[in-house]
Design brief:
A seven-stranded mixed sheet has the order 1-3-2-4-7-5-6, sandwiched between helices. The radius of gyration is 17 Å and the shape is globular. Helix 6 links the parallel strand 5 and strand 6. It is of the alpha/beta class. It has a single domain, classed as Poly-gamma-glutamate hydrolase, zinc-binding motif (Aminopeptidase, 3-Layer(aba) Sandwich), CATH 3.40.630. Helix 3 packs parallel to helix 7 and helix 6 crosses helix 7.
Amino acid sequence: MKVKHMPSLIDNIRFGILGARKYRNFADLAGYQREGADYRILTETRPQSNTAVIAPHGGKIEIRTSEIARAIAGSEMNLYVLEGIRPSRNFKFLRLTSDRFDDPRCLDIMSRSERVVSIHGCAGAYPLVLLGGLDSNLLSQIETALRQADLPVRRAPPRLAGTSPKNICNRGLTQMGVQLEISRALRGSRLESTLVSSIRKVLMNCPQ
């Protein structure tokens, strides 16, 4: 019988020091962290929808990205959320970079979705939304909607631009998606509901 590899003390020390930067893929993360104890996965599939809203760094990893993703998806759109539920150090131990994020449950939802919006959190003492991803048409629609709602928005800098084909936001049916990096100051503020309603309006007006 093949024995499943268990992380050694050296492995645990290595990941304790270096954190999730060294996770090669989701299977690697799942080998060191326990589903149900360290993280949980939430999915909602809507057969009538070809839009997916995802939050791969939800829960305590990037605070309130889960809530924002769920609110945007509502009961109409496909949803995938990975939530960190560790008592502490969720960002360090559970953040698998977007270009390595390949949970089969997420990819399954993506395989049936023509539009993808990925919700992330970034640092920032001022409210700001940074937009990236390869779906330039949807990105422009969302940017216009946010500006019309008087929300502070700009195009993401290269390191947050989400333009790699391997980025999870770009792995839907069209191989294009939108990535939103939302500053900590905006998440949980009075502007959050405006952000949600503005994005929902854009997505609900797209052909389903």
